[in-house]
User: What shape does this take?
Amino acid sequence: MRAVRKQLDDLRSPYLMFNQRDFTDWSLSYAVTSKGVSGTLSYKKKRYPLSEIHSIYARLMDDRFLPELEDEPEGSNARRHCRSLHDTLTRWIEVSDALVVNRLSAMNSNSSKPYQSQLIRRNGFRTPITLVTNDPRSVRVFWRKHKRIIYKSASGARSIVSEFTKEDCSRLAHIRWCPTMFQEFVDGTNIRVHTINNRVFATAAETTAIDYRYARQQVGTPAQLREVVLSATLKQRCLRLARDLGLEFAGIDLKVTPDDQVYCFEVNPSPAFSYYESSTGQPIAAALACHLTAR
Assistant: This one.
């Protein structure tokens, strides 16, 4: 968020920053009529007509866990106001005529990785052979068949991708209460592709770790990131996938095998791009700021 704000400042583009932690000072009301969406966003004594907001970049945390609510009992006035404000905000973002990066309805495909993988295949990408189960026996059969497998969350909840080993067999009973995603291990180079409107930024992550984001924990050294250039065909396929999911800004996770087969694991609808930008110098924040100011 800070990176985008800096780019907006450099462009001298006016913007309004909604800080969730200041929820007591904000209010929002709107109406939907045959003429469109009208309303007002207020901060303390300042009022901002919604009609003057032409683009929205939304990165919201779960408002239930804001530090300011930590000591508030359930049902308190502060909790009710905070929940009402965020509920109204997310509903307005859905119906707003503004450019939205990204609408929650488009982001929801990431809530179920098995569902999203169907959309990924529809756009011409390979996906790993996958098992989602809470049955330990099925996992053992899957493991014997594919020799090397990994496991991770089947939902949008962040998890560390790990390889399944003999030591994990003793813990398999735990999946009875938490269906888990298991996949064949795909060897190759991890590539994160950020798409913003019609622009593409691709970054390769070199490491022996299973999950390059946690390479330091898994193998002792961080992944080495470098900018790469995609083929015209692969670039267009990534842009088409983002458009199909309704995402103005997306982080697409690919892996390219030694024989140049391209697998797509998932599409992140709210990518934490600064990790890649700081390592490669790719102007991702600048491209996002330019897209937001295009209107």
The chain has a mean pLDDT of 95. The radius of gyration is 21 Å.
